[in-house]
Structures are given as C-alpha cells and as structure tokens.
Amino acid sequence: MATAPRPRTSTRDPEELAARLTAWLDARLPGATVSGLAVPDSNGMSSETLLFDLEHPDAPVRGCALRLAADPAAYTVFPVYDMARQHRVMALVADRTDVPVPRVLWLEEDPEPLGAPFFVMARAEGRVPPDVMPYTYEGNWLHAATDAQRAVLEAESVAVLARLHDQVPAREAAFLLPDGEGSPLRRHVDAQRAYYAWVVEGLAPSPLIEAAFARLEELWPEDEGPAVLCWGDARIGNIVYDGFAPAAVLDWEMAACAPREVDLGWTVYLHRFFQDLTVTFGQPGLPGFLRRDAVERRYAGLTGHVPRAMEFHTLYAALRHAIVMLRIAYRQAHFGEVEVPEDPDRLILHHAALAAMVRGTYWDAAA
C-alpha cells in the first residue's frame, strides 16, 4: 500500500461522458441537462460510479448516481458486467425487503450511448467507511468514533445481512445460480475456478490460490445449509451510513444464490484484510470491531441460523479476494504501474494470511 501506485479506475473522459449522458437523457426528459458530474473517491475498478445533478422540472430526483459497466477495452477486472442482472437484484431487494437500496430510475442495456450498459439511480446521502486509506487506519470518521458508536454500526450492518437472507424467498434468487451441476455452493465455487482460469490465461498462475482451492475441498461442509439471496460484496465499505445506521446498500454485482455463510465469510474476512494490513503498517487498527465470534453470535440471534463451516467460508472469502487482487495486479502490470515479480503470489497483498488459512493456523493466531 505504501509503495505501489493506486491503480487507475477509469480510462474514460468525464467531459465526454457528460455530453453523451446529456444526449441520452434528452430522449427521456427533453431539455434535461447534467451538471456537477463527479467521480467519487471510492470509485472501484469493476464498474464505474458517476455522480451528477439532473436539471429538469420533471426530474424524478435531482441527485443521481450512474453505475457504468467497465470499459471493455480497459483490461476489465471481471469477464462479464451484467447491468440488467444488478438492476433485477436491486429491484427484488427493494420489493421484498426493508433493506435500504437506492431507487433505480433507468436501465440502459444498449452500449452505444455511453460505450457500455449502465443504470441511473437516486443518489444516497451519507458517509461510507473508506477503503483508501482503510477505515481501520487513523484519521477517518469511523476510526474516530466511540466504541459504542462502532458497536451500533456493526449491529446494524449484520442486521442488513439477516434481513436480506430472511426476507427474500429463496426461489426468487434462483436466477442467480451459475450454469452447471451440483449444489448452489458447488456451482459458486466452480464459477470462481472458471474466473481464476480466466485471470491467469497466458500468465503465471498462483500456486497459493491453487493450494487454497485444494484446501477448500478438504474443508467442504457436510451440510452446506440452505441457499438464499446473498449480497455478494457484503462489507461495510459498500454501505452508505446516516450517522451509524445504514442508509443505502450498494454494489450488487456479485449477488448470488448461495449459503448464508458466503456473505458472512466475506463480511468477516474483508474486515480482517484491512485490520491485518493496518497492524502490519504499525497501527493497532480496530481489533474489537467486526470480530468473527461476535458477528456469528449476532447473526444467529437475529435469524436463528447458527453459522456453520466458517473456517471454510472465511478461507473461501480470502481465496476469492486473492483472485480479484491477482487480476488487479495483472491489470496494473498491463498499464505499466507495477512489475510482475518472479513469484506471482507476491502480487496478492494478503498472501501471508491466505497461506495461514490454507495451513489452518490463521484463526489460532488472529485476535
């Protein structure tokens, strides 16, 4: 984090996008104009978010956010960006739950207007725990909060998962199942194997990732549990908070029909990822926050479902994150931002933690 440049998140020209967006809106709201187009600091690399104000007397809202699929010519992080799928998931969550999701205004599946499919939604106001530098570092609003305030945020965030998993009928999430055979969990893991194969095609593979896949098979749960609608990218950095309560749940591109623990493992491990980095760089971080035992206990109390096979699911989360990080690192190499080391595992920022999980020693040492 201290030595590598921050990866670029876009190859697009904001002024050109604003002009093209205004032309597209004119067909829906003649005379509408776009103002204040901005790229948020938290913009990711998997797809792009643009914020803008919509100027028109009949505009459904003023403050808008546009979710644009990645530029297919820009070494994308994922092989497919299905904006209609994301739109369908958000509509389902809005219809079936009380989980706060932004109101989606328009879906455009034709890539011609902006160069890729996109949808426009109402902008959520609030604050988001930062990724860069991570909220576990000093100098941001969540780190500066009291223990009691962070406890409220943690409880409310786990409750988002509980309500999502309980309130959406499982049959309505079946459209998210990947093609293939076997249980929802087996299909989910097989899809990750296929993603990894795509990432390393023509490039150096990762022995650590392949060892992690082998370890998963050894830890495979005897009882996988029921499949539900999973958020997919279930972490607090994808929630807009009003105070310390969720105001909007974002980033549904990784949504899945899978066991509840797929979300729980991701929530627990993605926090551990930031916490481990913070400790490595000499700060205490937030050791009492989003602890695995506390998350499991609270979730069980809210749902009656006791999380199972969490060693498997936290390893799976770390493995999935490693594949994404490897792709991002190869993307940086593509743009000349980094050089690929002799050992490709060194491209995975949390390689030591993943290796400890493969050995079965990570949680013994984790605080």
From TrEMBL:
InterPro entries xrefs: ACAD10_11_N, AGP_Transferase, Aminoglycoside_PTrfase, Kinase-like_dom_sf
Gene3D superfamilies, per the entry: 3.90.1200.10, Phosphorylase Kinase, domain 1
One Pfam family it belongs to: APH
Domain Aminoglycoside phosphotransferase: 82-279
Source superkingdom: Bacteria
Record protein name field: Phosphotransferase family protein
Taxon lineage: Bacteria, Bacillati, Actinomycetota, Actinomycetes, Kitasatosporales
